[in-house]
Write a structure and sequence with these properties.
homodimer, mainly alpha, DNA-binding
Chain lengths: 219, 219
DNA sequence: TGCCTAAAAATTGTATACAAAAATGAGTTG
DNA sequence: CAACTCATTTTTGTATACAATTTTTAGGCA
């Protein structure tokens, strides 16, 4: 089934093993997973719908390359939705989900300690998803899912801070607020966390130009 | 190409010519549009991703049948996002887009006058999309698109008011606020408009039960 | 009649074959 | 040597053939 291929490709994209702009050949992927192009095409179309992949007619599929504008919009979207989701999660959280969150943060720490940047970033995104799952609001969860995935591509292209550790603090503060079931505090911490992430991006036009040059040169 | 089929099916679904639960046979659709099942499947998968269609393994595709819970969530989502979008539109609107909105509302009136309920409803949804287009924020516009489409299915299942005219008043007030570029008023009118739509639904569990019975009987 | 069983038909899932378009590269010419 | 042309090769787009599963229907039995 196509789901396995979607998952596999998605994971590779979110961990930056397949960087933005990478060509995704149907034959190649089909051979890797041992399926026909029919299935691969279905998987690629699914990823394209999530905007992780761009399909150009008669040219093929490529890992998407979000524009600067798109980057701004994605984080503006997160700044609107995720604080609300955090508040809902604070209201609904129980001890089991709290344990899950803590375990997740430990995994993040481990990945950072192992200097596996891609994995650390993917886990950091999944942390936001866990909170959305606790909120248990499918519509909002789907939006968060979509935005978090796209954020991973945006970070691959535009992240300017050398360290990712600064995030751990925010996530810890978020867990505290959730544990106390403090809705307004969870909401506010999430809001400022998203704004902080947004500000960690280098979204100057110059940057964009240099990228498109490297695209032309490096393929 | 599949886009033509997606558009055609979508329009039929949004105008309630294909009611929730309708079986969408691949062969039948392929014959109507003169293409092979390959293309039809691609179109159906695209619609499934938008949650207008449900695909059951080895059983086929059906026009989606949103649950009561889903209905609540969709309108909660709209209540969060669309007021912000309306405020952005109020800030960005120019005379051209204002004319477009007015023309759109006239088309709505015409459809209501012609007693074409399905068309009137579809146009009423498109009105919200026009506002999102004026806001010119792709992320939010995509969210609104998705939620408005799903709302159409929800209304097909759960709408309890006999009249649709009550909406025209809200849309008129919205245009006024936008014309004045009054962001906070546009935001507030949109918020209460969405809440009003939400309250126009009969989302009692009883209703759901009766529907699942009719599904079992009628297929 | 009512219900269970099994063969037949219809429908979806997947692979493959063929058509169309784009990328590649050798050869030619200025 | 650079740049253009055209045949070759590769890759994607679509249709079709075959496999797997479900639905339907006919038949038998209590």
């Amino acid at each position: 089934m196509a789901a396995r291929i979607v998952t596999g490709l998605q994971q590779a994209i979110l961990e930056h093993r397949l960087p933005p702009g990478t060509k995704l050949s149907e034959d190649e992927i089909g051979e890797v997973y041992g399926v026909s192009r029919t299935i691969v095409r279905s998987a690629l179309q699914s990823l394209a719908h999530d905007q992780l992949v761009t399909i150009e007619k008669h040219r093929g599929a490529f890992v998407a390359r979000p524009t600067i504008r798109e980057a701004h919009e994605v984080f503006e979207g997160r700044a609107l939705i995720e604080p609300r989701v955090a508040a809902m999660a604070a209201f609904k959280i129980d001890s089991d989900s709290l344990k899950l969150l803590n375990a997740h943060m430990e995994a993040e720490h481990a990945a950072i300690a192992a200097e596996d940047k891609g994995r650390a970033l993917a886990l950091s995104g999944e942390f936001h998803l866990e909170i959305a799952n606790i909120a248990a609001h499918d519509v909002f969860t789907d939006f968060v899912k979509s935005l978090v995935k796209r954020s991973s591509l945006i970070i691959a292209l535009y992240w300017k801070r050398p360290d990712t550790t600064c995030e751990s603090h925010s996530h810890h503060a978020l867990i505290d607020a959730l544990a106390q079931k403090n809705e307004s505090e969870a909401e506010e911490i999430m809001r400022s966390h998203i704004v902080d992430l947004h500000s960690g991006l280098n979204l100057t036009p110059t940057n964009d130009a240099s990228i498109s040059v490297s695209q032309i040169l490096g393929g």
